[in-house]
Amino acid sequence: MGETTLVNAQTLARRLGDPELRILDCRFELGDADAGAAAYAAGHLPGAQYVHLDRDLSGPRTPWSGATRYRNRRYSQQASAPSHRRHDRCDCLRRCGGMYAARAWWLLRWLGHERVAVLDGGLAAWRAARLPLTTAASVVAARSFVGHPAASACVSADEVAALLGREACLLVDARAAERYRGESSRSIRARATFPARATTPTS
Questions:
Q1: Backbone dihedral angles phi then psi of residue 23, each to the nearest 5 degrees
Q2: Using one digit for the tens of pLDDT, what is the confidence trace for 103-162?
Q3: How many of the other CB atoms lie within 10 Å of CB of 193?
């Protein structure tokens, strides 16, 4: 597979069993922290490893430098458990709008993993293609992965605040529309800054 951000179901299916492939199942429900693991147990892609939003893809709220150190250590440990190496191919199962798989994708790229893609269409696309699911436990050989965070990929809240109102930057709020409008009581901040000259997404 090429080094793309997305991989389609048929291409991924042809790689099942490849010793260099690692699949992360990122399903999660904000209202039920156990729902993702239960869904994984009920049926997942062959060889997929489950990663939990709270335990594996998040760190405690701490000052910026401490959070960076924690996430580096914690996610590097988790990445070693599903047996990633820097050059292993890692595909994240997309569901629930893709935000959790996108989170895993970003974390791996931030930590220096060079070969990461998200399954285009997620589990729905896999099922639509009539590809296999399994309830069997996934066991893969352990390998070591030590993350090296890219400092330039992150900005602090103070840095974002300093950019507000400047024409040189565009602030993008990636939350669901109802959260952006303040209509939902559950607020998740997922924001990034981009140069104003960058192409604005149309969808």
A1: -115, 125
A2: 999 898 888 888 899 999 999 999 999 999 999 988 887 777 788 888 888 888 899 999
A3: 17
Is the CATH number 3.40.250.10 carried by domain 6-151? Answer: yes
**Domain assignments of the chain as residue spans, ordered by start:** 6-151, 155-195
Query: 72 CB contacts (<8 Å, ≥6 apart)?
Result: 111, 147, 148, 149
- What is the predicted pLDDT for the residue at 97? 53
Q: What is the mean pLDDT of residues 8-33?
A: 91
Q: What are phi and psi of 111, to 5 degrees?
A: -85, 0
Question: From CA 106, how far away is CA 114, in angstroms rounded?
Answer: 11
Alpha helices per DSSP H over 96-176? 99-110, 122-128, 157-163
Q: CB–CB of 95/26 below 8 Å?
A: yes
C-alpha to C-alpha distance for 61 and 59, rounded to whole angstroms: 7
Q: Residues 160, 170: contact at Cβ < 8 Å?
A: no
Whole-model pTM over 0.90: no
Residue in 67, 91, 26 with CA at minimum distance from that of residue 157: 67
